[in-house]
Amino acid sequence: MSPQPQSAVGAPLSRVDGRLKVTGKAKYAAEHHVDTVVHAVVVDSSVGRGRITGVDTRAALAQPGVLKVISHLNAPKLAYRENGSSNNPPGERLHVFQDDKVHFHGQPVAVVLATTLEAAQHGASLVQVRYDAERPSTDLARAPAHDPVTYARGDADKAMRSAAVRLEMTYRTARTHQNAMEPHATIARWDGNRLTVWDKTQWVGGTQTELAAVFGIPRDAVRVISPFVGGAFGSGLRAWPHVTIAALAARVAGRPVKLALTRRQMYFGTGYRPAYECGVRLGSDRRGRLTAMVHDIKAETSTYEDFQEDVLAAGQMLYSMPNVRQAYRRVPLDVNTPLYMRGPGFATAAHVIESAMDELAHHLGIDPVELRRRNEPAADESTGLPFSTRRLRECYTTGAREFGWQRRNPEPRSTRDGDWLIGTGMAAGVYETVRKAAKARVRLDADGTALVEAATSDMGPGTYTSMTQVAADALGLALRNVTFRLGDTLMPPTPPHSGSMTMASVGSAVQAGSDTVRRQAIKLAVEDVRSPLHGANPGDVVVRGGRLHLKDNPARGETYQRLLSRNERTHLETVGSFEPPSGPERFSLYAYGATFAEVAVDARLGLVRVRRVLGVYDAGRIISPKLADSQALGGIVGGIGTALLEHTVTDHRDGRIVNANLADYLVPVNADVPDLRAIYLEGEDREADPIGVKGLGELVHIGVAPALTNAVFHATGRRIRELPITAEVLL
Amino acid sequence: MSTELNEPVAHPPSASPPGPSRRTFIVTTTAVGGAAVAGGLVTAQPPPGAEETAAAEAAPTSRVTLTVNRKRHTVTIDNRTSLLDLLREHLGLTGSKKGCDAGACGACTVLADGHRVNSCLTLAVRLEGAEITTIEGLADGDRLHPLQQAFIDEDAFQCGYCTPGQIMSGIGCIQEGHTGSEEEIREWMSGNICRCGCYVKIVRAVERAAGGK
Amino acid sequence: MYPFSFTKVSDTREALQAGRRGGRYVAGGTTLVDLMRETVERPHALVDISALPLREITVTERGGLRIGALARMAETATHPVVRRSYPVISEALQLGASAQLRNMATIGGNIMQRTRCTYFRDVTAACNKREPGSGCAALHGFNRSHAILGTSDHCVATHPSDVAVAFAALEAVVHLLGPDGERGVPIVEFLLRPGDTPQREQALRPGELITAVEIPAHPRPLKSGYLKVRDRQSYEFALASAAIALHLRGGVIREAKVAAGGVGTVPWKLPAVEQRLIGERPSAALWADAAARAADGARPLAHNRFKVELLGRTVERQLRTLGGTR
Fold first, then answer.
1. Is the pLDDT of residue B39 over 50?
2. d(Cα A709, Cα A724) in Å, to the nearest integer?
3. Residue B49 pLDDT class (50, 70, 90 cuts)
4. Which domain of life is it from (chain B) (predicted)?
5. Active-site hit among A92, A698, A722, A728
């Protein structure tokens, strides 16, 4: 931990980029002004599988303003080199406009370029594509699977046979889409063989390597810029086909190209959380001590890529039990490839495990919180490693107290309020603490201000703010004198803005760089005979409000400005680095949470209304409490959507997504959301990373859906094992 | 199984009376009730090449004079242009956001003659004489509108993309008098989706601004 | 969006002339512009009628209410007479769309709304309403939101309006002005069931313009209200809805006006329910018995079977809300 006083970190500050966002001045991908830009609109396949037999572009090209129509018939051949530095799943990514094959409904088959958006849109609607169509396979329940990924400890099948209590259930969760408010968009411009793109992405570095690989050009010939991201929730973790199309079109047209996906295109032009079918078997003794768990999990993937996410870890370490067997099968379908969505893997796993635990609690007549306490492990039973920190018991205690859990009548369907049946439910949540190598440039200028830069992203959690806080404290500057910039591949590299790893990784690099610069300044001062600090022990010097002084004698010191100008230094600068410890992990690193929810169910009309939700989290140190609170409430809102509303519907006859719009794919609106509350346990995790954080953006979403569905069970006495829970199943 | 599927035959546009023949999109900007801000001719788009010249001559366009954030603009636009695209693509006012382009998310909300509306479903050609206020027109110099400030103070946003629409809608909600309770605000702010899920704080911000707190 | 010419008219005569030349009237534009962008609608000429003097809401000589076709949803919902005398209209309006859309959309446009059927809205799908003879993708597709009443083998699309359901319940008359003069058509005859011509949705003659919707006088006091059941609490179309108005005298139901939404290809008037109520005293048993007739003749599809039950329960709940007794 830093020897510096911590005044910004941990303070409930408002967002540093707030003003830009409330005045409309924050620039998102499609909003950058690029001279001579033309508009591109993608034409999507209207069949779910097959071959393109013809593309008639005459009507489109006859339209005023239409410049070009590009399809596989006239597109230049692209290199499509392998890209090891990407989130591309195993397999081979879609090659845009390189052949006549259609792999899924909505696949890009052509792009229309025009001088105005209206002309490009109209032109796209006039391109006539002929297909030799086949019936696609899009039904998870019917298609054969890949070989499974498996895990086993003990002998789960034997233990199941001898268990005093055995439960067997199948849970299904719907395909859901991230549906961030900003549609994906890319502006691409070539200057000779150098490519600049303004892109909606959670990882400028990933888009950079992918474009370099696709076009067969050096990585440093590609610059990616993305200062603001209008939400992403995982959808910005790959460079999707439209990014390539924008760059390809710009090359063909010889002019910069702007391409924004429509909301409809977001449903097949970017990823999604795949649909899952999860068979679970639980064995326990009569007191609720788990003896065995078996998971048979099936999930959607595409025919051309094998997307996997971590749906297994939680089952291996959340509860203590000697016997576990898991199999995770991906089912290749004629769909576009899924990708991570908030709380990837763990959110689905937690839904399955925490629903099953609730069923067990009810079966045994044990309080759901108590059942979980009885199965708390002493160490991570999947690795044998000790937990760095695991305060799940405290989450339960605090949550139960603040929620008023003890007032609950355990009997289902026991509480009424007029036409409403009232129920409460809870669930645990867990997400791994991920951190990866990151760098950040820190420059302290002679005017006493600092500029900190890293090629990370801020899709909403507040990277701008939290990094500024870390740098301000480590440099000993007032917040207003620190500027943090992000979202440009010219800046020091960072890992993807995902998996709740940004604070741990980039934050640690920012702190390291800031510490170095501060120490440079202190060294300069103590070695400078003209400095009041001359001869002091560097370890005794701190910086506060831009002024270096002795920790025990604040009167003896001077400002950065004075120090630097006297030494004729325009600035001090370094690139700070963070590397996770090399070698095997010594600790089991996870963040934990518990969600408590109350719902009202009108069983006659099939309505579920959320009345209140409380989340309690063990997420390590909280850098930016005000923003962390917003993240938690947002994660809960996302869980309300998952549990009660969200479902991407495919018509299996032709692979068409039938609700590819925001009126038919329902996400929560304001009226769906009651007052919500989040509590972060105070503390830090010294083993996780230098700044003591465990990550929170994923965690706060995990466990919300099962807490709600468990509450629906408690309200109605009906166990619904398929998400989302809609009117037809409740009637 | 193998079938031949076609996209439906596209209907050719019927002959329509040509609009004023202008080479490109042209904006003239004059100040309303004050000193002239910018007179003369401003081309919002880069100078056209030969291809656009031919193109624009055939496009059905109209000439419209409207006021945006107290500035009067006379524009010659493609009849198909929405108010949202006029703002974003032609006037450089990208604060109003395109979230769905179908009236299903509220990110494009602006005030038209004082009422909150979805600018994506508003054809610009219909706005002769209209007064439009966008997020860019709210602050008084450096002083933010109270609702803008309340959004910052309550942290009523994360990614910020829906925020301009939320704020414009919130102003409408307050003007319409639908801030009597949290429940009422929730209902009357339900035309604005926030995928980051900041609803609790959006309600607090609207409440705060409505109460002049 | 296909190109179109644009004219703004300032009086009805000018409007009718433009209409006769094949121009498409646009008022609020919230449905039309949306569908034009999806290329479902491809008008070659738009006639902006928003400046016509058709915005007034007035009490008629006979004691009914005349709502100008261009009155906005928002202003109609908050109009003092509407709120006081016809809560069912006010509630149906405020439960529809969003505040922004209600500021734009008009009463005439609202009843002209086209279906939300996703196959209708997707020009690459088969749809007899959009392209007669192309087939109905919804019939054996994903049809959860579709109709169970008034369907045909050619179309099962639901009429999306809420306020039209209230109008149907109250037996409103649609006033039309056309080249041949004025006429009034009851709304239940104005909105057409699909039959084998699902592309014909309204009994409009070429060039005709809606000028007003008139609610006939009903005996007073009239208790009325609208219940809308949907997945999301706001900003969504109905799974099922009930518009009901009851006139009680001496503890007996003398008049009952009942219609349902979200379940029919048109707003669905429920005469069997009405008949069962008239002459009876309110009771829980009566509500249940009357509501049991709501889904008479329903033809559910693979994904909307639940609407049969839901419709009855929705009507029953709203009867109880208005008429009392638990």
1. no
2. 9
3. very low
4. Bacteria
5. A698
Q: For the domain A30-136+185-269, what is the CATH code?
A: 3.90.1170.50
On whether any CB of chain B is under 8 Å from the CB of C83, the answer is no
Contact A727 C309 (CB under 8 A): no
**CA–CA separation, A715 and A413 (whole Å):** 5
**Hey, are the CB atoms on A181 and B194 less than 8 Å from each other?**
yes
Contacts of B183 (CB under 8 A, 6+ apart): none
Are B155 and B86 in the same domain? no
Q: Taking 90 as the threshold, does the pLDDT of residue C9 lie above it?
A: yes
Could you tell me which residues are beta bridge partners of residue A136?
Answer: none
The pTM (predicted TM-score) of the whole model is 0.95
User: A609 contacts in C (CB within 8 Å)?
Assistant: 233
Picking from C4, C44, C101, the nearest residue to B118 by CB comes out as: C101
Beta strand spans in chain C (E): 5-8, 24-26, 45-48, 57-59, 65-68, 173-178, 181-186, 209-215, 223-229, 240-249, 252-261, 268-269
The answer to whether the bond into C221 is cis (omega within 30° of 0) is yes
Q: Per-residue DSSP letters for C303-325?
A: T-THHHHHHHHHHHHHHHHHH--
CB C218 within 8 A of CB C148: no
Active site residue A698: yes
Report CB contact under 8 Å: B16, C46.
no
Residue B203 lies in a domain: yes
d(CA A263, CA A73) in angstroms, rounded, equals 27
Residue ranges matching CATH 3.90.1170.50 in chain A? 30-136+185-269
Please identify, in words, the CATH class of the domain defined by A18-26+436-578. alpha beta
Query: For position B85, which CATH number holds?
Result: 3.10.20.30
Taking each helix axis as running N to C, give the angle between helix B199-210 and helix B146-154, from 0 to 180 degrees, rounded to the nearest 10.
140
Count of CB contacts below 8 A, B vs C? 115
Among the three residues B83, B118, B137, which one is the final residue of a domain in this structure? B137
CB-based contacts of C125: which residues, under 8 Å, 6+ apart? A656, C118, C119, C137
Q: pLDDT category, B15, cuts 50, 70, 90?
A: very low
Decide: A691 and A582 in contact? Cβ < 8 Å: no
Q: Mark whether B51 and B88 lie in a shared domain.
A: yes
- Give the nearest partner residue to B109 out of C3, C37, C100, using CB atoms: C100
Regions of chain A with pLDDT less than 70: 1-2
Fold of the CATH domain A391-431+586-730? Aldehyde Oxidoreductase; domain 4 (3.30.365)
What is the distance between the alpha carbons of residues A2 and A567, in angstroms, rounded to a whole number?
A: 26
Q: Which domain holds residue B72?
A: 27-137
Positive or negative torsion for Cα A302, A305, A309, A315: positive
Measure the CA–CA gap between A538 and A550, rounded to whole angstroms: 9
Q: Does C118 reside within a domain? A: no
ipTM: 0.98
Residue C285's contacts (CB-CB under 8 Å, 6 or more residues apart) are none
